[in-house]
């Protein structure tokens, strides 16, 4: 017995073991439960209803009970209200609106209205906003009467929005989750502006906007069929940096580390870990080449924002009059939407929202120091309800964070023998049950 006892004493006395912080769990079975709870049948049912309104053009009527944008808005509102009844009133439903004129709007102006459900979290200061657009169009952008099914653009995103609200309404979160069905996207990103302006006017601290626009096509114009890959777009540089901040960024690096981009990295990491047969690729672009979406309006108001979209776009189906020419079917029809794929996209949104909403807020005032020394010092402000923090680093040409270290409940940490010039660094806050915030890149460029 003697040698064994002395070994125990020696282990207990070892200072390295006594100082190591207990690492919270990194695996979350409840996120798999959320992935499984998303139903492709229900998504198809929602989209079938949306297509059933004939057109959801922003300038179509608001008087018919069965056709046009007004009827579609009322139906979405009723869905949110039904979900709320099933969760003891957990959703507040509002319909913010603004009147717009513009190149794709009547001279006299027209009212554009969003339908928004708000799932209040326990922390009144934190918001996550999921968006999709309810409106649809045909070849002529001003044609508000022809059938514009918009099954993929953006019935798929709106279906994901309602299904995500239903799945996540079964849980309680720290952050508030907002589900916004925008109108006016096709006329000029007006619905995105309405909800981003509403957020700003009400002092919402939006940590991320997850926009979903065309998330259901798996048969591309190039004849490729692919139900596994998806894109998440994000801006690389914040919209609101001063010229001086931009100069430092150009010199020291960090041109690809806006909070939007780090939200995209966060989503891709989760989705690729938790969703089977799915690969979400981080795109180093704000949106598709020369094209836009409602998340841009969040960026414009200083909020991190990303766009989910299918890889296999099909331009015979997008923004087209429903017609048959030489045996080819044109138009955004329900039969072209792959709801198994929409379910994966919906799950990617839902687990990202849940994980961020259970995690503490991203750390503020993240700084690094250590030039001309072998060590790098990372510092940040303490975050309410954080159990600890994880420091990340990666090679300067690596797209995703490569390495990390849990450093416990401190607000400053020295990474020994890790030279500041050789890596990009960031820090995430961690809850006691292991939910992490997105990684925050140091300085104004990375600030949420
Ligand atoms: Zn769209």
Overall description:
This protein is of the alpha+beta class and 448 residues long. Helix content is 31%, strand content 21%. The protein has twelve helices and 18 strands. Helix 3 packs antiparallel against helix 12 (339-358). The protein starts with a helix and ends in an 18-residue tail after the last strand. Zinc ion is lined by residues 133, 153-154, 185, 213-214.
Q: How would you summarize what this structure contains?
A:
Helix content is 31%, strand content 21%. It is α+β, with helices and mostly antiparallel strands and 448 residues long. Strand 15 and strand 16 (403-408) form a beta hairpin.
The low-confidence runs, each spanning 5 or more residues with pLDDT under 50, are: 5-10
Q: What is the CA-based Rg, rounded?
A: 23 Å
Q: Tell me the distance between the termini.
A: 57 Å
Any idea what the CATH superfamily of the largest domain is called?
Zn peptidases
CATH class of the largest domain: Alpha Beta
- Helical stretch count? 12
Query: The CATH topology of the largest domain, please?
Result: Aminopeptidase
In CATH, the architecture of the largest domain is 3-Layer(aba) Sandwich
What's the count of strands?
Answer: 18
What is the helical fraction, as a range of percent?
25-40%
Bound molecules: zinc ion
Largest sheet: 8 strands, mixed
Overall geometry comes to globular
| Range of strand content | 15-25%
How do the strands of the widest beta sheet line up side by side?
1-4-6-5-7-10-8-9
Structural class: alpha+beta
User: What's the number of structural domains?
Assistant: 2
Topology as a string of helices (H) and strands (E): HHHHHEEEEEHEHHEEHHEHEEEHEEEEEE
Q: On the 0-100 scale, what is the average pLDDT?
A: 95
């Amino acid at each position: 017995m003697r040698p064994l006892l002395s070994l125990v004493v020696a282990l207990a006395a070892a200072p390295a073991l006594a100082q190591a912080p207990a690492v919270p769990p990194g695996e979350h079975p409840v996120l798999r439960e959320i992935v499984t709870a998303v139903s492709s049948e229900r998504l198809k049912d929602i989209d079938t209803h949306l297509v059933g309104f004939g057109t959801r053009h922003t300038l179509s009527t608001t008087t018919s009970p069965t056709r046009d944008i007004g009827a579609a808005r009322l139906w979405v509102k009723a869905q949110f209200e039904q979900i709320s009844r099933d969760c003891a009133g957990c959703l507040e439903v509002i319909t913010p609106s603004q009147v717009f004129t513009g190149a794709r709007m009547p001279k006299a102006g027209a009212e554009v209205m969003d339908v928004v459900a708000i799932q209040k979290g326990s922390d009144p200061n934190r918001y996550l906003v999921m968006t999709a657009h309810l409106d649809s169009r045909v070849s002529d952008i001003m044609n508000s009467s022809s059938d514009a099914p918009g099954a993929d653009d953006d019935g798929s995103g709106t279906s994901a929005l309602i299904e995500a609200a239903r799945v996540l309404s079964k849980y309680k979160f720290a952050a508030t989750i907002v589900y916004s069905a925008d109108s006016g996207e096709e006329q000029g990103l007006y619905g995105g502006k309405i909800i981003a302006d509403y957020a700003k006017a009400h002092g919402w601290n939006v940590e991320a906007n997850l926009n979903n626009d065309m998330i259901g096509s798996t048969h591309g114009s190039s004849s490729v069929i692919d139900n596994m890959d998806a894109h998440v777009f994000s801006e690389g540089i914040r919209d609101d940096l001063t010229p001086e901040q931009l100069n430092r960024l150009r010199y020291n690096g960090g041109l690809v580390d806006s909070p939007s981009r780090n939200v995209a990295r966060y989503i891709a990491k989760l989705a690729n870990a938790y969703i089977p047969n799915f690969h979400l690729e981080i795109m180093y672009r704000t949106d598709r080449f020369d094209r836009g979406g409602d998340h841009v309006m969040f960026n414009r108001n200083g909020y991190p924002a990303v766009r989910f979209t299918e890889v296999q776009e099909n331009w015979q189906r997008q923004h087209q009059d429903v017609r048959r020419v030489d045996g080819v079917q044109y138009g955004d029809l329900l039969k072209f939407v792959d709801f198994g794929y929409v379910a994966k996209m919906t799950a990617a949104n839902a687990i990202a929202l849940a994980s961020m909403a259970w995690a503490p807020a991203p750390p503020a005032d993240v700084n690094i120091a250590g030039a001309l020394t072998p060590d790098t010092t990372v510092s940040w402000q303490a975050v309410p309800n954080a159990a600890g923090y994880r420091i990340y680093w990666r090679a300067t040409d690596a797209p995703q964070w490569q390495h990390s270290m849990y450093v416990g409940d401190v607000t400053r940490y020295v990474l020994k023998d890790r030279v500041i010039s050789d890596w990009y660094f960031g820090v995430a806050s961690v809850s006691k049950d292991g939910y992490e915030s997105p990684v925050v890149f140091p300085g104004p460029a990375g600030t949420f």
